[in-house]
Amino acid sequence: MNGNAVYEPPAIPTSWRVALPHTTAAVPVARALVRTALAEREHSADCDTAELLTAELVANAVEHTSGATPIELVLRLLPTGFQVEVHDEDPEPPRDLTKPNLDLPDPWQEHGRGLLLIRMLSSSCGHRPTESGKAVWFRLPGQRSPV
After folding, report:
1. Boundaries of each Histidine kinase/HSP90-like ATPase domain copy (predicted)?
2. How many angstroms separate the CA atoms of 23 and 1, rounded?
3. Number of C-alpha atoms within 13 angstroms, CB side, residue 86?
4. The dihedral sign for the CA sequence 52, 62, 138, 34
5. What tens digit of pLDDT does each residue of 12-64 get?
């Protein structure tokens, strides 16, 4: 053997891409994937907020798109935070995601708060066209470690 042997551990994934069923069963699965990704990598993004906002994106994709095509969940651990994307086959952008509706939702209504939560709790959010429809995304910043 020539030279020193160097052990290089396998690369730790910093992004995941998962197909989810186009049903409400996808919501708890998506939440669990986010929780697991953040915990396994000891990432500093707020896990509770990440789960909540992911659930909203997935629920919106299930409710507002049709078809049997799976929804795609993309998770990215970034040096400055965490990004979640949900891909669906509908090219129509979500209403009121980046342009806020000035009317607050009725506190008694059951729907209409998901995009408001995403706008208010994320550091940034948006949508972009994809070859098969669109991707709706949000980012959360990393949190400071307690001293």
Report:
1. 21-139
2. 56
3. 33
4. positive
5. 568 999 999 999 999 999 999 999 988 887 777 789 999 999 999 999 999 98
**Coil/strand/helix, residue 4:** coil
Q: Which domains does the chain have, with CATH numbers?
A: 15-141 (3.30.565.10)
Token duo for residue 105 = 């939702």
Task: Convert 71-87 to b/e letters by CB count within 10 Å (16 or more is b).
Answer: bbbebbbeeebbbbbbb
CA atoms of 142 and 136, how far apart (whole Å) = 20
In this prediction the pTM is 0.82
